[in-house]
Design brief:
Distance between the termini: 63 Å
Strand order of the largest sheet: 6-9-7-8-10
């Protein structure tokens, strides 16, 4: 059994749970993930090449940490055509269906409150489902280390940070208090700084925020309660009154982002663990997707050949067709 995993008994208190975030709309990569018929497929339901979808890869990652009884996945109701099949092996109560996407803080809160009810002493690992890691073994070692740290310091919420490869102004940054340390309190958060500001942050030792969290569930819920107390109250009421009440609430909710609206200003509750290079990318832009495809051998992506021919959208093929279309448009424009 992987060292990050706890007891196989799902009734044990203080077990390690995983929350997989799969409710995003994938709007930043929509130019590539839109099919010829005009259907926009969120990137977590696409494959990098012709292998498993990013969601399937994340579920495999989650299974190395916890048993299926302790894996919860947050999805959007309107995406059911894509998530129903890959999530069919999870317990029904572990598939958290949101009426619509209202940001990462809201998406986190629903499964966390549910886990808190079922296992008040639980520790939880939060994994985005639309990211790619080239070196899974390195990531798993970092997750094992993070789980161990949070069990020693229950009050701290631990984020994983990656050493920046460039001053990317589309990503979030975490500035550790102790420069170069593997584990450090957080000094500052910066979301999507300008290129000049990003470079200055890197010179101060900032790490990329990959939005992988590890914490005691009660500590994470307490942090969200401090940042958005009315949200906790309203979600609790809607849960008691059922799906119709939840749908009505979501229609009124603003979008609340964890990094921008919760973590910022609560740095004293957070720590960051520096992760060795593991080929992380959020695949958030055509340029980052192209860079990932260039450094990821096809043989690595295509090991699970059973996924071929299933109608899954391949980001590699879509990127090739999109690039060809952009080049053709540019050439036509230059001749006009």
């Amino acid at each position: 059994m992987d060292e990050t995993r706890g007891s196989t008994d799902s009734n044990d208190r203080g077990a390690t749970w995983v929350v997989v975030l799969a409710g995003g709309d994938g709007s930043r990569l929509r130019a590539i993930t839109t099919t010829a018929s005009g259907l926009a497929v969120p990137k977590q339901f696409c494959s990098l090449r012709d292998g498993p979808s990013l969601l399937n890869e994340t579920l495999q990652r989650a299974a190395s940490i916890a048993d299926e009884a302790r894996i919860c996945t947050v999805v959007a109701q309107q995406h059911e055509r894509w998530w129903r099949r890959p999530l069919r092996s999870l317990p029904r109560e572990n598939v958290i269906v949101q009426p619509q996407n209202r940001g990462t803080a809201v998406g986190l809160l629903l499964p966390l409150v549910d886990i808190l009810d079922r296992d008040p002493d639980a520790h939880v690992v939060v994994l985005p489902s639309d990211h790619h890691f080239g070196e899974e073994a390195v990531l798993r070692q970092a997750l094992a280390r993070a789980v161990g740290v949070t069990r020693e310091t229950d009050s701290k919420i631990l984020l994983l940070g990656m050493a920046p490869e460039c001053a990317d102004s589309e990503l979030g940054y975490i500035v550790p208090s102790r420069l170069g340390a593997e584990l450090s309190p957080v000094s500052q958060f910066a979301e999507k700084p300008s290129p000049h500001e990003a470079q200055a942050l890197i010179e101060r030792g900032a790490l990329w925020n990959v939005f992988v969290l590890v914490a005691r569930v009660s500590a994470l819920v307490a942090l969200l309660a401090r940042a958005a107390p009315l949200l906790i109250e309203k979600l609790g009421e809607a849960r008691r009154y059922g799906q119709a009440a939840m749908t009505a609430l979501y229609a009124r909710l603003p979008s609340i982002d964890f990094s921008h609206d919760v973590a910022h200003g609560n740095e004293s509750s957070l720590a960051v663990l520096r992760v060795p290079p593991c080929g992380w990318t959020d695949l958030g832009t055509p340029e980052r997707l192209q860079s990932t495809l260039a450094r990821t051998p096809a043989a690595v992506c295509d090991l699970n050949s059973t996924f071929r021919g299933k109608g899954r959208l391949s980001l590699q093929r879509q990127h090739y067709e999109w690039s060809a279309g952009v080049a053709g448009y540019a050439t036509a424009g230059s001749r006009s």
